[in-house]
Amino acid sequence: DFGRSSELAFVVEPSDDIAVQEQPLILYCQVEGIQPITITWRKNGVMIVDSENAFMLANGSLYVSRFQRVRGDGSSDEGEYDCMAQNHYGLLVSRKAKIQAATMSDFHIHPQNAVVEEGGVARFQCQIHGLPEPVILWHKNSMPVNTDNERYTLLPKGVLQITGLRAEDSGIFHCVATNIANVKFSREARLTVSGSHSTVYKDPMILVGPENLTLTVHQTAVLECIATGNPRPIVSWSRLDGRPIGVEGIQVLGTGNLMISDLTVQHSGIYVCAANKPGTRVRRTAQGSLVVQAPAEFVQHPQSISRPVGTTAIFTCVAQGEPPPQITWLRNGQILETSDHIKLKNNNSTLSIYGINQADEAIYQCLAENSAGSTQASARLTVLWADGLPSPPQSVRAETVSATTIQVSWEKPLQNTKEIIGYVLHIRKAADPVEMEYQEAVSKSTFQQLVTDLEPSTSYSFYIKAYTSRGASKASEVTVVSTLGEVPAMPSLFIKVINSTTVQATWEPSIKLGQHEGFKLYYRKVHLSQYTGPVLLASNITAYNITHLDASVVYEVKLLAYNQHGDGNSTVRFVSLRETVERTVLNPPCDCMKDEQNNKTSTTGIIIGIHIGITCIIFCILFLMFGYRGRLLMCKNVQEQLSTPQIPRSQRSATGLVLNGATRRDRDDRDLNGKQLDMNELERLFPAPPSQEQQEKGITSAHSLSAPHDETQISTLPLDEFSIIEEQPDPLPKNPHASSPAAPAPNHSSANEG
Q: Where are stretches of biased composition, namely Low complexity (predicted)?
């Protein structure tokens, strides 16, 4: 039963047709599948009953003996026909066939008389409507126009073009329209060719440009473009979007008409006709749009499937066409109505049937239709049902435990429980579609399940199925229960000090808060027990400024979210404004004008200080240089003094001591007067050696040290104790070794310190 032969399907479906008045019409319908198969016909959705005028043939086709567009009772044989086939597995409906009567109207455009100079272009047009599209032929002087003449171009829409006119082209023209309904003749028009070919220059001009056309794939499009000018313009074609027109199926009729054969959707676009003056950039353009429609056709057909009871069946039907087709689903020939367990998605391309049962077993059809045509495809759903399956679980109950938990319990089925291998609990939010359902498996010995991670204050539906290795039982009764309400969670709170009397409380909205109606804000001084507040804030508010605060104390700020179930836990923060006040005192507000002036003054002082510092450095360097040079000179003089003849050892000690001790004491005085020392001062500075008598008494000079007579007392003379000494020659005593106390000491020279 599940093989190919069981599928009920159409081998031949009725097609669109144009019927001739008072002539017979046959609509074909052929079906295959498991017999017996019953075929019936409908017109415009109404069942056709066999009559003398219309009845069904043995092969299932419909025969209309005398087609009439309008009958005596006002009815018509025109309309949309479809055939229905039905067998044990379901019912199938064919595509709709549109039947129209062949007609032909009168000409609404007739050819007009024309006078054209020799070498010019003549154009005649006649237009008429009919079904099917009339074929239009042209006659000249009551004879068919010679189409072998390349100067004569006949276009399908009833246009005759004659280029390069000559005198022999003059005559009387008319057109003849023919279809299966009738033959009609237009009025006559005279063509007069005047004068000789003109050599006067004329700008290119497009007499007639392309029309906007809407055609179907595989038809032929003719885009007209006729241009005049002297010299004769060159006609070219292009697409406005820049895409190439191509060469396959493209042909130029006459001097510039574009014909596209075997149209495809890709040929749709705006076409531009350009008339160019030869050898120049002078041109004229005209444009027209071409719309190519494609009837609906299937890219993916729905496939017949077999599914156990309680499972999900999915059919997919993908169609394409231009314009995009609309998809409609039928169930056994009737429009499919969606419900909680029947859903259409993806622009009706996907049909999903949840929790199928035997009532869902049927033939499902996908109808794709657009303005260019329609098509259909079908598939059968077989619901598998095994004998001996358990009956539905009994006494399903659901009890609310908390805001996020519900406990579901049930009792085992009444029948066929031995083969049960487990239960499946089906869970869904009551407001969600069936496809949002999820399941939890339960062992066969368990008759309750704690369902967690639910949302507060939300209704849920539950039902149970018992499973065996051969299939599932039918679903139990559905029970619906709601979770408890829950107060909101703690919000995140942040405090920012704005100034010495204001702080800003901010918090973040979060789904973790749950359902909440708003926020309550409290604040107080920490040493007080009474809060200021609550300040009620809407749920969309996320910040609040607390003003007129005392900067000398610490404040406590508290925020909580609330809903209809009560207040949530609060978040507490402490804040002090004292640091802000201290920073304000330590860092007073900036006086920008004063600071700017101070900056200018400071800059000037820095520059002056740099100059003074550089000057001081230069003077120090010079001072050091000259001072070092002077020391060198002094050392040289001392060396010269030390190199003079030796005085007696007894005098050398005293002299050395005097130089070491007294020279520095008298240096300033000598610097001031700058005069040469007199003899008395020399005697004071350089006394004569003591007498023998004084030596015996053990008396020495005040500046000498006690020592044995045979030892010489040497005084160290450091270089830095010397000054620059300028030598000046003085007359010395003739007897340098005289011992008179009044005589000057037998020194090598007398010195003036300069």
A: 735-754
